[in-house]
Amino acid sequence: MTTRGQSRRIPETESRIDYVQTDGLAVMKMVKHCHEESTSNMEVAQGALLGLVVNNRLEITNCFPFPKNDETMDEEEYQLAMMRRLRRVNVDHFHVGWYQSADVGNFLSHPLLESQFHYQTSIEESVVVIYDTAKSARGFLTLKAYRLTPQAIQMYKEGEFTPDALRTLKIGYESLFVEVPIVIKNSNLTNIMMSELEEMIPEEEGTKYLDLGTATVLENQLRCLMDRVDELNQEAIKFNRHQHLVIRQQQDKNRLMQKRAQENAARAAKDEAPLPDDDINKLLRPLPVPPRLNPMIVAGQINTYSQHISQFCSQSLAKLYITQSLQNAKESKSTN
Fold it and tell me: For the whole model, what pTM was predicted?
């Protein structure tokens, strides 16, 4: 996987996908699968996305879930069998990516990066669609599509996650993924049915605009943010400890080199051969640099939580001010 002997030049290829268009049927399948997994055993739901590429648009027309951990069933054989069956019934069977559920917006992880790297290197136009179950359960449909940036692909190809390598590639948590706009397309019959269903909704059920249902989601995000900050603090402590060890080792090496220089000067005065410095280098070998990929991922998670909390806080504060005004008006009217 590594290409250390090659140049670190990042390919200047831009994404050919401007936006993702998904059918309502595929969205409903993803929603159903993700909520079933989250309510039954709290596991992450994953599945394959099927469709085709039309000009600069990636169309997702169908999907199917990946099998659970089952030793009797091979995942690759299962996917091939599913695509063969879909092809027989004249359904789009081209693999264009995969989807995954996320709880409280927490989706950035090592497995996701590695999986999307393998998908995107084998299928150039592939995307990963993230569905947030917790946020959607409170009435906010959260469906986002992501692709790896050229810097992230180059980083995984080289397999070096040291600070110097990441600094050379100019990559950080904000440049790991690029979000691709996603739109949902329904057929005319589906739109007609949705219009009829909207008329069947009771009037009082569709006017709860001031519902403060975001409180539980906000609380969970704050708890997750605190955990990620603690984890990032531990990573910073490890890196600072490594720097202190490097400085101490360099001081010990300088001290030994000075001592060896004095010994060689004394031996030169006696017309003796100088002692080599190889034993000092063998004694004080370079300390391995801790990888910086995990801290970068944790920093990306903190950034995601911060954005979500900022969004929820602005919405909740606006609702609180509106309800306060209504409550004051109601109290003043009752007193009069």
Answer: 0.74
